[in-house]
Structure formats: structure tokens, C-alpha cells
Design goal:
The complex is a heterodimer of chains A (431) and B (101).
Chain A (H helix, E strand, L loop, with lengths): L9 E6 L3 H12 L4 E4 L14 E3 L1 H7 L11 E10 L4 E7 L7 E3 L2 H15 L2 E3 L6 E5 L2 E7 L2 E10 L6 H5 L11 E10 L2 H7 L6 E9 L7 E7 L3 E9 H7 L3 H10 L1 H4 L6 E11 L10 E2 L2 E3 L8 E2 L4 E2 L1 H21 L4 H11 L3 H7 L3 H6 L7 H14 L9 H10 L4 H14 L1
Parallel strand pairs in A: 1-2, 1-10, 2-7, 4-12, 10-17
Antiparallel strand pairs in A: 3-6, 4-5, 8-9, 9-10, 11-14, 11-15, 12-13, 13-14, 16-17, 18-19
Chain B lengths: L5 H5 L4 E2 L7 E2 L13 H5 L5 E4 L4 E4 L9 H5 L1 H5 L5 E2 L7 E2 L5
The chains are: A alpha/beta (431), B alpha+beta (101).
């Protein structure tokens, strides 16, 4: 049994003050445990970056009704899926009458900064501007962190370093993140006014739009665009598969600029002032390539653990960061109360996630592979969709073409008809 | 819409840069024999890597790095930590400092 030492500076140390780390720290502080968060940014939120959409169920689980005080942007009531050629787009555009607060656009810096305040009020300590450079490991048990020459010990450590978990990778406790398992995303933030966002997206009352698009914007490679409306700004971004981009890509920055020039997309941000440009990796691996999730004296949560699901039409990372942070914090608090931080005891963390993110990831384990190896998704299908719409809506005084002929004509343009159809069926099963 | 160059894009973002301590280190000469197809050039979202054709060296500027980690994965030498190559986070709260995130 790995027990708790009275000499420790803290009962728990959390590496990384993002959504996962702070959620864990909040639960530990609520349980009356002494907890320190070490954050490498000048303040919590300085290093966080998101596309910009949060599914709120886990924020509710963390905070109860106080989740409504969190600095969120617009309540998403409109979902747009866009298929694009170089110059045109076909959208599926759906507005929901009762979004029920399920999802909001967010800017992660103010959200994380606010959550850090809640943690401090609950009794957690936070050291910002400090980078963890290594771990204190005694007899195979993680017993604290090193920051240069300084050593801080604790009964257990929660790793919430983010998508590049350098400290735990170097300690050999988790597998190395591989480029086959990530995508790279860039995002522009364009400032408008609240009235102008309302006008461009024909909305009001801080209701918002989420758009995901695929097609020529990624030059035929796996990836897509996202667009979220904030209160008085618009987030526009591009995500591409890291490995295939490395092999076949073009300049990522030029491609992002091409996206901004796309007539069906650029008009939403035209004239806005660019107030931030940033980038972040997105975990795209499946449940089988996740790292070890716990060990003697440690747990790993959030992006560092690879908790992210991209199904093409929904992208979830932040909700899993909070949910896994809650699970890590509660598991850690119970282990500390029992005076046992052994891997056996901490395996309760994984057992708990098996009812959540791990089950979800298992259900879509083939999705990334299928999307990454089905280039038709990013070239052929969008072109067919746009072409069909163009044919249907073209009235130029020529002979009328029955809908069945338009459809037949479109189907005839499908290359490798059978394999494409079979592959689609296979893919839909993986999602 | 007017196209923007990377320096203009990055000027919108806040950096607290430690000019003297690059957190990522490469060997500009050794990059001549790149086994990774100079993937860093096209894959870096901040375009920090540029191949200098005249002098046959890779130039890298850590100022303006967005710390995403993509080069750490697409460059085989950074990935394996080959001699002369290393990837760390900036220290003491320096580096990219998002205002919106």
C-alpha cells in the first residue's frame, strides 16, 4: 500500500491549470484536501486555446447551478454543416427551438481564468508562471514535481499538462504522442460588434451559430473548417490531419488564408478586426492508442490523456476535460481519505471513465481511420453535393430537366461507384 | 479580402518572449539532410521554419511560436530528440499569452 506522508507540502499537486486540472483541483479543494496547481502560463488561461464550443453538461456537474455564472459566449441554437468546393458551398442549416443551454460558444482564456478563481475560493492554491520540468519518483511511486532545482512533494500528482504531456512522456509513464493520432488546428478571432454578429447570422438574444465544413478547404485531405459566433466576435478555424498534411500538404498558413478568401465563408468575418491568431493540436487517435491513465501516485486527465472525439459533425474535448478532471479529483480525494494512493486504488478512475469518455471513444474507434483514408469525403462528395444543387437551381431558359435525370446525372459522376457506396456505409457505421 | 502574411497574423497575438532562451532548438546545418521532407515548413501554423536556399540552412525563430507541438511530431529529429534538437515549453510564464484563447 502506498501511503500518505505527513511531510509533504501538499496532498495533491496538479500539473496544468486548464479545464481538466482546475476541475480536479476544485473537487479536491471541495473535499478539504490541500491541493496545488502548477501552471506554466503567466496566469491560468494564458496557454489555453480552443476552437470554441463547450457542451455544458460537465460544467453543470462540476459547479451545479453556478455554471450559469461562467463566462460563456452564445447559446448555440443553429447548426450548419457545410460542404465546399473551391468557390461554392452546400449547407445543411438547422435551427432548434429549444437548445436548453446544452452548448455554448466559448473563448477559453476568460473561462479558464474564471474557473481558477473558483478554485482559489474553494481553497486550492495556484502557482502561475512555473513550468514543471520533471517528477519526484520514489520507489516507483510519483511523489511530487520538480521545477528546475526546486522540488515539491505530495502524496499524489494529477497530470493535466495538455495535448503535449512532456513531463509524463519523459518520465516514461505514458506513451509518446504520435503524429498519426493528432490534427493541427489554427483559429482566427475576428472582432465585430454584437449587433453585427446578430445581423450576419440573423439572430438575437445571444443565440449563436456553429458551423462545421469539409471539402476543398483542406485541399482534399482529412480535416475541415469550423466557425462559431461569439457575443461580439467570430471564431474561424481550420483543422487538418497532422500526418497526411506532413506528407501531402501545402503551407498550412496559406491554406488558412485561402479559407478566409472562400466566398461562402469569408463573408462572415469580412471587415472584422483580427484580434487573435493561434494554434493547438487536437487528439484524433482512438481508444486503443490512449496512454496509461493511472499508476502509483498519479492520474492523467483531459487533453494529456487524449480525451477527445471528432465525429465530423461534433468535436468534443473540453467537456471531456472537465468530466475527466472531476473523476480524477474525486478519485484522488477518496484515495487520500483512505491513505492509499496505489495504482490498485487509483484504478477506480479508469473504471469510472469506462462509464463515460472511454465508452464513447470505443464506440467510434474506427472513425478517425476511416475519415483519414477516405479522401472522397473531402473532394468527391462535396463536389457532387454542390453540383447537384447547382443543376437543380439553374433556370436559364433551356429545356427543363426532370429531377430524376438531374439525380441520375449526378450519380453517374460518382467515380468507383460501388466502392464509394460501400465505403460510405462502412464509415457511417464507424461514426 | 486582403490576404495577410504570417507576421501580420501573429501581431494580433500577445507574446511575452524570452529573447535569449529558445525553447525549441534545431541544428540549421544538420537540417540539410532532413529525413522528414522539411515538413516543419508547411506544417508550422506560425511559419517559424524557413529553408534558406542560398545558404542551405533551416532558419527557426522561436519568437512567435504558438507552442502547439506540431513540429515536435512531424520532425523526426525533434520527435526522437536527436543531437542538436530539443523541444521544451518556454519557462517562467513566457511565450504565447492568449487574451481570448
Amino acid at each position: 500500500m502506498t501511503t500518505v506522508d505527513e511531510e509533504d507540502a501538499f496532498e495533491a499537486i496538479v500539473i496544468g491549470g486548464g479545464l481538466a486540472g482546475l476541475s480536479a483541483a476544485y473537487r479536491l479543494a471541495q473535499a478539504g484536501r490541500s491541493v496545488l496547481v502548477v501552471e506554466r502560463g503567466a496566469s491560468c488561461g494564458a496557454k489555453t486555446f480552443t476552437g470554441g464550443r463547450l457542451y455544458t453538461y460537465s460544467l453543470r456537474e462540476l459547479l451545479g447551478e453556478r455554471w450559469r455564472e461562467a463566462p460563456l459566449q452564445r447559446e448555440i441554437d443553429r447548426e450548419v454543416i457545410s460542404m465546399l468546393t473551391d468557390t461554392e458551398a452546400m449547407n445543411v442549416d438547422t435551427t432548434f427551438a429549444d437548445p436548453a443551454g446544452r452548448s455554448y460558444s466559448v473563448l477559453s482564456t476568460p473561462l479558464v481564468a474564471w474557473l481558477a478563481e473558483q478554485c482559489e475560493q474553494a481553497g486550492a492554491e495556484i502557482i502561475p508562471g512555473a513550468t514543471v520540468t520533471g517528477l519526484v519518483i520514489r520507489d516507483g511511486v510519483v511523489r511530487g514535481v520538480r521545477m528546475g532545482d526546486e522540488e515539491l512533494t505530495s502524496a499524489l500528482v494529477i497530470d493535466a499538462e495538455g495535448i503535449n504531456p512532456l513531463v509524463f512522456e519523459r518520465a516514461g509513464l505514458v506513451r509518446r504522442l504520435a503524429r498519426e493520432d493528432v490534427a493541427v488546428g489554427v483559429k482566427y478571432l475576428f472582432k465585430l460588434t454584437e449587433e453585427e454578429v446578430d445581423r450576419r447570422f440573423t439572430t438575437s438574444d445571444r443565440r449563436g451559430t456553429a458551423m462545421l465544413g469539409m471539402g476543398a478547404v483542406t485541399k482534399g485531405l482529412f480535416g475541415g473548417l469550423f466557425l462559431y459566433t461569439n457575443i461580439d466576435s467570430v471564431s474561424l478555424g481550420l483543422v487538418v490531419d497532422s500526418d497526411s498534411w506532413r506528407e501531402h500538404g501545402h503551407s498550412l498558413v496559406q491554406t488558412a488564408e485561402d479559407l478566409r478568401q472562400h466566398p461562402a465563408v469569408g463573408r462572415y468575418v469580412a471587415g472584422g478586426e483580427l484580434v487573435e491568431y493561434g494554434a493547438h493540436l487536437v487528439y484524433e487517435g482512438n481508444v486503443d492508442t490512449l496512454p496509461q491513465l493511472f499508476g502509483d501516485g498519479w492520474l492523467i486527465a483531459g487533453d494529456a490523456a487524449g480525451f477527445c472525439i471528432n465525429r465530423g459533425f461534433t468535436i468534443r474535448g473540453m467537456d471531456y476535460a472537465i468530466a475527466s478532471g472531476i473523476a480524477a479529483g474525486e478519485t484522488a480525494a477518496a484515495a487520500l481519505a483512505a491513505g492509499d494512493v496505489s495504482a490498485t486504488r487509483l484504478s477506480a478512475y479508469k473504471a469510472r471513465l469506462e462509464g463515460g469518455v472511454l465508452a464513447d471513444m470505443a464506440k467510434v474507434r474506427g472513425a478517425h481511420h476511416w475519415m483519414a483514408h477516405t479522401p472522397d469525403l473531402f473532394s468527391t462528395y462535396p463536389a457532387l453535393a454542390v453540383g447537384l444543387m447547382r443543376d437543380m437551381f439553374t433556370v436559364d431558359g433551356g429545356p427543363l430537366v426532370p429531377v430524376r435525370s438531374t439525380l441520375t446525372g449526378t450519380v453517374k459522376k460518382v467515380p468507383k461507384k460501388l466502392s464509394t457506396a460501400l465505403n460510405l456505409v462502412k464509415g457511417v457505421r464507424s461514426l | 479580402m486582403r490576404r495577410m502574411k504570417i507576421d501580420e497574423l501573429l501581431s494580433a497575438t500577445t507574446f511575452e518572449t524570452d529573447e535569449h532562451a529558445p525553447h525549441i532548438v534545431i541544428d540549421p546545418q544538420a537540417c540539410r539532410t532532413c529525413p522528414s521532407g522539411r515538413a516543419c515548413e508547411i506544417s508550422c501554423p506560425a511559419q517559424r521554419y524557413r529553408w534558406d536556399e542560398a545558404n542551405e540552412v533551416m532558419t527557426f525563430d522561436h519568437v512567435g511560436c504558438l507552442e502547439c507541438g506540431n513540429c515536435r511530431l512531424v520532425c523526426d529529429r525533434l520527435f526522437t530528440g536527436a543531437e542538436g534538437y530539443s523541444w521544451d515549453y518556454p519557462q517562467n510564464g513566457s511565450g504565447v499569452t492568449y487574451q481570448f484563447g
